[in-house]
Amino acid sequence: MRSKTAILMIGISVLMGLVAVMLATQWLGQRAALATKTVVVASRDVPLGSALTADMLRTVDWPSSSMPEGAAADSKSLESRVVKATVQRGEPLLESKLAPIGTKGGLSSVIGEGKRAVTVKVNEIVGVAGFALPGNLVDVMVNTKDDNDRPISKIVLEQIPVLAVAQEASRDETKPKVVNAVTLELAPEQAEKLDLARSIGNLSLVLRNQLDNKIARTGGARKNDLLQIAPVKGPIAPVKNVERRARPAEAHKDKVEMIKGVQRSTVEF
Hints:
Type Iii Antifreeze Protein Isoform Hplc 12, two-stranded antiparallel sheet, alpha+beta, six-stranded antiparallel beta sheet
């Protein structure tokens, strides 16, 4: 009898020990999840190309288990750094969104290495009705004349990033904005082609899908391509020539009165 009681007590003890271990494990996991570290975030929206100041930064506690890569813990280390992408309020200031140390503010800070910024004068039509916004990709098309002095339209540059429209480089807006200038980011050889294209013809921007990276292989469009007439099915009835005869003009007759003695007569010619 005593042995059965002892076995029962041992079993209960083991069961309680297992429950205690499970509870302790859960508690330790929750404590680890609640462990935080200091992270610097934006205290307000920071536009692209802006130099960070103390009033733009603040520190918050961030769960260490989900710490973003490249986050900073000291706001002093980020002062005067330039952001190369728009940062929203409460968003961590990551190294990937900052220009190299020593970079000055402005649009030049967001131009990629080895790239150039070229501004193109546009109107409502050329500027894709204001839908070409910073961060979008466009193709550049020129309307000019070929070697045979015939009109031609041809895409000369593809997948060109838009850096700014007018004097704004913010990438958060989705509302169309009609402007008179668009700034594009180009490689040096692309900048040369663009400069030549706008000197020999009229430019148009063609908005494209940002995920579409296929290169268009076109020969350009000419006047003959627009005026092609679809072939007529079936025999064509011959056109009969109808002779038109002019109505004979009424003859003009001259009359002469002749007098012989006492006789008079009229002669018509």
